[in-house]
Specification:
The protein has helices at about 10-20, 60-75, 90-100, 115-120, 130-135, 145-150, 175-180, 190-200, 215-240, 250-260, 275-280, 295-300, 335-345, 350-360, 375-380, 385, 425-430; strands at about 45-50, 75-80, 110, 125-130, 150-155, 155, 160, 165, 170-175, 285-290, 310-315, 325, 325-330, 450, 490. It is an alpha+beta fold.
Length: about 500
């Protein structure tokens, strides 16, 4: 064995950086870790005011879970929930602006990662850097660097990410879709065809659409279509001003919207996104293009994933991930600063994110949260949700390596987590130093370690749950395939 032994965290960090892609948000099923628990604290008195726009089902429930954890730590602090209703915070942001400009900030407030915070309140010198909190909590080893980068500016960190949402998702009423004999669409053209077919089969407005509260829902639909028409690089160029909104690809995105709108409800300006969800639940609509916060809404209304509803990427965006990240920051002049610091620590904690995200419908910003408590969509969604580093393109099926990054397949484990990735062999060799990134120890037997099982003995299914049922625990022997008989076999008796 090599003398250099790595922890799993060290392996993830080194392999990701060396292989050309920072490891960003591994699958929730990758590195299982028991959620930490907290004991009541004696410090902390007075008040804590938290400002957000989380008033809808799912989101308000997730916020309440973090409040419970905070109260357990600081039972003598009175929490004021100053949530303001309004989709995507259109109303809340106006209220917040009045308070911040008037010198009456809340103790902490919800804000999207990126320029929504950096180009506004940070630039206006209204925020206190949280770099020292970030460092003291050790979040560099828990929160991916790419997420840290988008909440940082001028060498300081300004807010803590609590989740990662996907903005480009198409939700559908599974029972209605199945009953009408229509398949979930992969492309914009297929969605147009599906809408036409559903209308011909008696559903007057098969596309649920909301535009109340600032029309942000329609704007998001356009952004998803631009991503579908031009790809990730073109989308970024359009949004940064390097490509024109008169480009033919943007025209195509708008053309798709023009084709879909006749199939949408005409009262869209009077309903918000969660009310559009209700149209799916009632069966008066079948499709809704919305971020995955819709999942938290559906499950809070007792809809069961993959039974009552399903989800696919927004048409034309398979393999791409439109990230929406919620964060909390620390305003200058916060009335209860010490209590606000305690709140930020809860937001960034393993316990806080494990409690918050299943209710919110998102996945954690931290990479060490256990999958227990998450629904099947969060645990088993397609590979592009599990592999958040979208700078690494998916590997074609015929080019995949079961050894992932160690086999030269940068989209594989640990940069991603696919059913065929041989995680056990990869980790054994990494722990022994038998990798291309540690040439001094990349020798036999270090680089030949394995469990003797190099592929499944049962083919994958084409539908959820994709994997066959495991063999019974009392089964000894049985069919197992070792496609590499020359490997150092740590399972010599071929036990299951």
């Amino acid at each position: 064995m090599g003398n250099e032994r790595w922890t799993r965290r060290q392996f993830v960090g080194r392999a990701g950086k060396t292989a050309g892609g920072v490891v960003l948000g591994l699958s929730l099923a990758d590195f299982l870790a028991a959620c930490g628990t907290s004991s009541p604290g004696t410090a902390g008195t007075g008040k804590l005011e938290i400002f957000s726009w989380w008033t809808g089902p799912g989101e308000k429930d997730g916020l309440a879970e973090m409040f419970k954890i905070y109260k357990n730590k600081y039972p003598n602090v009175t929490i004021t929930n100053s949530a303001v209703a309004g989709g995507a915070g259109s109303t809340a942001k106006a209220v917040l602006a009045t308070r911040m400009q008037g010198g009456r900030p809340p103790d902490s407030f919800q804000v999207h990662a990126g320029q929504e915070l950096i180009a506004s309140w940070v630039k206006a010198n209204k925020m206190e850097a949280i770099t020292s909190i970030w460092n003291s909590e050790g979040w560099d080893s828990k929160i991916p660097k790419d997420l840290k980068d988008i909440v940082s500016s001028n060498g300081d960190v300004w807010s803590v990410p609590v989740n990662v949402h996907r903005g480009n998702a198409l939700w559908y009423n599974k029972k209605v879709l199945d009953s009408k004999g229509v398949s979930p669409p992969d492309t914009p053209e297929q969605l147009t065809s599906a809408l036409s077919s559903l209308k011909a089969k008696g559903i007057a407005n098969p596309l649920a659409l909301a535009s109340k509260g600032g029309n942000w829902q329609v704007q998001m639909l356009l952004e998803n279509n631009i991503l579908a028409a031009g790809g990730a690089d073109f989308y970024k160029n359009v949004m940064s001003g390097k490509a024109s909104f008169t480009d033919a690809k943007v025209v195509q995105a708008l053309t798709w919207m023009k084709q879909w709108l006749p199939y949408a409800n005409t009262d869209n300006s009077s309903i918000d996104w969660d009310e559009a969800d209700n149209r799916l639940i009632a069966g008066t609509a079948v499709f809704h293009i919305m971020g995955d916060w819709a999942k938290g809404d559906f499950t809070s209304k007792n809809w069961v994933p993959n039974t009552d509803f399903g989800v696919v990427p927004s048409p034309g965006t398979k393999g791409k991930y439109m990230i929406v990240c919620d964060t909390f920051g620390l305003p200058k002049g916060a009335p209860d600063r010490d209590n606000a610091v305690g709140w930020l620590k809860v937001c960034g904690s393993q316990e806080g994110q494990a409690a918050f995200n299943p209710k919110k419908g998102s996945i954690p910003a931290r990479t060490d949260v256990s999958p227990s408590g998450f629904d099947v969509i969060a645990q088993c969604d397609n590979a592009d949700e599990l592999r958040l580093n979208v700078s690494i393109p998916p590997t074609p099926a015929d080019k995949m390596s079961r050894m992932g990054v160690l086999g030269g397949d940068n989209a594989g484990f640990p940069n991603g987590r696919r059913p065929a990735d041989d995680v056990v062999d990869i980790e054994l060799r990494a722990l022994a130093g038998g990798t291309p990134f540690t040439p001094a120890y990349n020798v036999s037997p270090n680089n030949a370690l394995g469990d003797g099982i190099d592929k499944n003995d049962t083919p994958f299914f084409s539908t959820f749950p994709f994997l066959a049922s495991p063999h019974p625990g009392n089964e000894v022997g049985g069919p197992r395939v070792n496609s590499n008989p020359g490997s150092t076999n740590l399972n010599p008796n071929n036990l299951p």
